[in-house]
Specification:
heterodimer, A: 503 residues, alpha+beta, Cytochrome-c3 Hydrogenase, chain B, five-stranded mixed β-sheet, 17 helices, globular, B: 247 residues, Rossmann fold, 28% helix
Chain lengths: 503, 247
């Protein structure tokens, strides 16, 4: 891996220091790395003075970066290297019109015209509605039928299209077509005034407002050389953990609802609100919007807020334990959770699943322990006990993470002593010709932002990756050979982001 | 079974007595803004300049709640010299113009259409359409079904099919990729029907205003009857707007 530059999370790197490899060498190195237990954090294209370049950020126990120049085509790594590249390569094809030759399933990701004004690779006419010029994967044969669901679903849910190929009740194949939520965020972030950046990043995925905005603010901090005071850093950790607990608690409630066990569904639903209200105590918004800003946080956590949070945790922790026990000890629930929607460790590795989806399969990766930001280096990690890759494991991992996060918040509250100032968004001079890569463990898993500046310190390319970008394929694999009626349960056990994927 | 009963006792009854009794939100919650009309114009201009949403008009001394994300940045200028945010969460409006406010909002009940109250006052079924929302609006609409808010006790429900609905509740800035699905859903709702724009995204594009991948203003493609501001609207804001407008 000596051909790549080893970097640390959230550091400013001069673009001159990024190794620029020849295309063949680049592809070979990336491929070898990923096949030796390496994973892709970011892999994207950008334009530099009329030429195309591709940049890769990879991880094993460290982060690495390198880039290369590329023409209109390159040999697909999905075909020759690893399935981990499949979505990244489709994204490169869609965003810049560069063709990964030999990609086994080259279709658009979000359905939009490319940024470079090149002829469209997919033969789409974007005045025609999504999904455009694209045939879904079809299974044919006697008694095989197709079920199409969405984009508008039967509930208060984000839009997306699901196409099931079934033999009777059994799902042979599920294809997921997203893009309905595409707002053009990456392009916007290079064009709008700086003051809009945190507000937009808080809207990448509202349930991950803190996670995404933290990545954005840490990138600005790296590029503008801003220091974050310890007290502010503590509040950032508390906010990220509150976000994690709120979402996990809500999902456990949704899972109980999906197996028709209503008492915990109601209780979890109500308790989720309690955690959102704690974010509101911190910053006035139930989703933590408006809290994290470059250089620190916009609302100081005073003794009053600290006490309100501590009190609520003391009150709610035993209730949470009891309701979790109610859910997980009910044999009717176990019968529905266990062995439903399994993904093997081998498949999880092949796809590079992250977050609880990966951990439930036995991939221990947690960015909080491997690439700690803020105060995480001082905090204990978590080892999960149930790792069979099924719905039960994904639920059990969430339960363990809720309890772990409660203890982290408690520790952080105990350290909240130091005085610090609230900060607001300002106009910052970003370092010219630089790169910053930030990685945080959002509640769904690895969130990463990558910011490239030009020689005047303007943002030339802003790349966002939500963990859902990896994990939607995991959901599709979970459905193989399952009853189609188990789809809601499998889906809820992942609860992936449509808007975080669609950007 | 014993566990179910034990938990039932521990959880107790959690449903809010709002709107029969008032409810107060924590002091940091940012609701209806209170603008100081005597504020120095230069302070107002400074607020307008830092506003990421371009929601402040310093010459008319107003804030557009249809654009505002309630981030509170303007409140920090001169320690609230131009604007302070109150904890009043009752923000719904029947007209887009009413959201451009000097701090006062007309009584929603007076502006509601009488025939809507007659048609839907006892039972209102809504189809929710997420059109490129960040899922915060959707999530805080969903919580209306949790025991604390218990929306269905008012005869209001979110339903699966537009055919069963009296109207649509739209969140998000309406991506180009969702426009047709949204219009099709609207067409599938039998008339007479209502259109509710929830969250600053559906009202003005919200944080995504200016993107060429979004429509940005629901009213430009469908006739909006009720606006619910916020980023996202607090569940109580939505509850208040629905009750005042339809009950």
């Amino acid at each position: 891996m000596d051909k790549f530059l080893k970097i640390t999370n959230g550091e400013r790197i001069s673009r001159a220091a990024i190794p620029a490899l020849g295309l063949d060498e680049f592809l070979q190195t990336v491929s070898d790395f990923v096949n030796a237990d390496g994973y892709v954090v970011q892999f994207f294209a950008y334009q530099e003075g009329g030429t195309n370049r591709m940049l890769a950020v990879l991880r094993n126990d460290s982060l690495f970066v390198a880039e290369t120049e590329v023409g209109d085509v390159f040999p697909s790594l999905t075909q020759t290297g690893s399935a981990k590249f499949h979505m990244f390569e489709r994204e490169i094809a869609e965003q810049y019109g560069i063709r990964p030759v030999g990609h086994p399933w080259l279709k658009h990701v979000r359905y939009h015209a490319n940024y470079a004004g090149r002829p469209d690779i997919f033969g789409n006419d974007y005045s025609v509605d999504i999904p455009g010029n694209y045939e879904y994967f079809k299974v044919e044969g006697e008694s095989v039928h197709e079920v199409a669901v969405g984009p508008v679903h039967a509930g208060i849910i984000e839009p997306g299209h699901f196409r099931f190929q079934c033999a009777g009740e059994e799902v042979l194949h599920l294809e997921i077509q997203l893009g309905y939520q595409h707002r053009g965020i990456e392009k916007m972030l290079t064009q709008v005034p700086q003051k809009r950046l945190p507000v937009i990043c808080e809207g990448i995925a509202g349930d991950t407002s803190v996670g995404h905005n933290l990545c954005c603010c840490q990138a600005i901090e790296a590029l503008a050389d801003l220091q974050v005071e310890k007290g502010a850093s503590i509040v950032r950790v508390i906010a990220l953990e509150l976000e994690r607990i709120a979402n996990h608690v809500g999902d456990l409630g949704a899972l109980s609802g999906d197996v028709a066990f209503n008492p915990p569904a109601s209780y979890f639903g109500r308790m989720r609100g309690e955690f959102l209200n704690l974010l509101q105590v911190l910053c006035g918004n139930r989703f933590g919007k408006g809290l994290v800003r470059p250089g620190g946080i916009a609302h100081v956590m005073g003794p009053e807020q600290c006490q309100l949070i501590a009190q609520k945790l003391i009150e709610i922790a035993p209730e949470l334990r009891n309701v979790c026990d109610l859910l997980f000890s009910a044999h009717t629930v176990q019968a529905r959770f266990e062995n439903t929607g399994p993904v093997s460790l081998a498949v999880a590795k092949e796809l590079g699943l992250v977050g609880y989806a990966g951990r439930a399969c036995g991939l221990p990766y947690d960015a909080r322990t491997l690439f700690p930001t803020e105060r995480y280096a001082d905090l204990p990690g978590l080892v999960n006990g149930t790792v069979n890759g099924d719905v039960n494991s994904r639920a059990a991992v969430r339960r363990e993470e809720i309890m772990h996060s409660l203890s982290l918040i408690e520790m952080m509250l105990g350290q909240n002593k130091r005085e610090y100032k609230a900060v607001q968004m300002q106009q910052y001079q970003l370092a010219p010709s630089s790169l910053a890569v930030t990685v945080n463990e959002g509640w769904r898993g690895e969130v990463s932002h990558c910011v490239l500046t030009d020689d005047a310190g303007r943002i030339q390319r802003y790349k966002i990756k939500d963990p859902s970008f990896h994990n939607w394929t995991g959901l599709a694999m979970s459905l193989r050979n399952q009853e189609i009626s188990d789809f809601p349960l499998c889906n809820k056990s992942y609860n992936l982001s449509y808007c975080g994927f669609d950007l | 079974m014993l566990k179910v009963i034990k938990n039932r006792f521990e959880q107790g009854c959690r449903t809010t007595s709002y709107p029969k009794e008032p409810i107060s939100l924590y002091s940091r919650f940012r609701g209806r803004p209170v603008i100081n009309p005597d504020c120095d114009r230069s302070v107002a201009r400074q607020c307008a300049q830092i506003c990421p949403q371009e929601a402040i008009d310093p010459e008319r001394m107003t804030i557009d709640l249809g654009r505002c994300t309630f981030c509170g940045h303007c409140e920090t200028v001169g320690a609230g010299a131009f604007v302070r945010f109150s904890q009043d969460f009752e923000l719904g409006a029947a007209n887009r113009q009413d959201l451009i406010t000097d701090g006062r909002l007309p009584d929603l009940a007076v502006h509601a259409k009488a025939h809507f109250k007659k048609l839907f006052g006892r039972s209102l079924q809504l189809r929710q359409v997420s059109a490129a929302g960040c899922n915060a609006c959707e999530a805080d609409t969903n919580v209306l079904n949790t025991p604390f808010f218990d929306l269905s006790r008012f005869g209001i429900d979110f339903v699966a099919s537009p055919r069963h609905a009296d109207g649509i509740h739209v969140t998000g800035p309406i991506s180009v990729n969702m426009k047709t699905a949204l219009l099709t859903t609207y067409q599938a709702v039998p008339s007479p029907k209502v259109v509710i724009a929830s969250g600053c995204c559906s009202i003005s594009g919200g944080p995504f205003y200016g993107s060429d991948e979004v429509v940005g203003d629901l009213n430009s493609i469908l006739p909006v009857d009720l606006y619910i501001p916020g980023c996202p609207p607090h569940p109580l804001t939505t509850l208040h707007a629905l009750l005042k407008f339809f009950k």
